[in-house]
């Protein structure tokens, strides 16, 4: 059950276009909150809510040096999504394989 709570949190974080844009930008490398906020069309306090959400789900790490807070993508955290997708892929492949076997058997047995 805990793995699903983790997954829910990650999907919730990724459900928002602003947070997806931050993730996309951080895919190119670390950036300051100021840089990231400059690309968003909202106030800094509102933008910080998005940063906190991403950080609370473990998708990003932040570090403060002086007055600058830098964000970095936590690529390892995406394993939660990758594992879930792999499970879903296996499940659907098994189902389509069974359906294929059923269809082939139905066409070969004309009773």
UniProtKB/TrEMBL annotation:
Domain HTH arsR-type: 1-93
Gene3D superfamilies membership: Winged helix-like DNA-binding domain superfamily/Winged helix DNA-binding domain (1.10.10.10)
InterPro entries recorded: ArsR-like_HTH, HTH_ArsR_DNA-bd_dom, WH-like_DNA-bd_sf, WH_DNA-bd_sf
SUPFAM superfamilies tied to this protein: Winged helix' DNA-binding domain
Family matches, as Pfam families: HTH_20
One term of GO molecular function: DNA-binding transcription factor activity
Name assigned to this protein: Helix-turn-helix transcriptional regulator
Species assigned in the record: Lentzea tibetensis
């Amino acid at each position: 059950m805990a793995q699903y709570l983790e997954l829910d949190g990650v999907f919730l974080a990724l459900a928002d276009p602003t947070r997806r844009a931050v993730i996309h930008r951080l895919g190119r490398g670390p950036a300051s909150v100021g840089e990231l906020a400059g690309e968003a069309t909202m106030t800094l306090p509102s933008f910080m809510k998005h940063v906190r959400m991403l950080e609370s789900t473990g998708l990003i790490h932040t570090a403060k040096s002086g007055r600058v807070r830098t964000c970095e993508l936590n690529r390892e955290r995406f394993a939660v999504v990758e594992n879930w997708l792999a499970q879903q892929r296996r499940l659907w492949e098994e189902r389509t394989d069974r359906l294929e076997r059923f269809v082939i058997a139905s066409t070969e047995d004309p009773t």
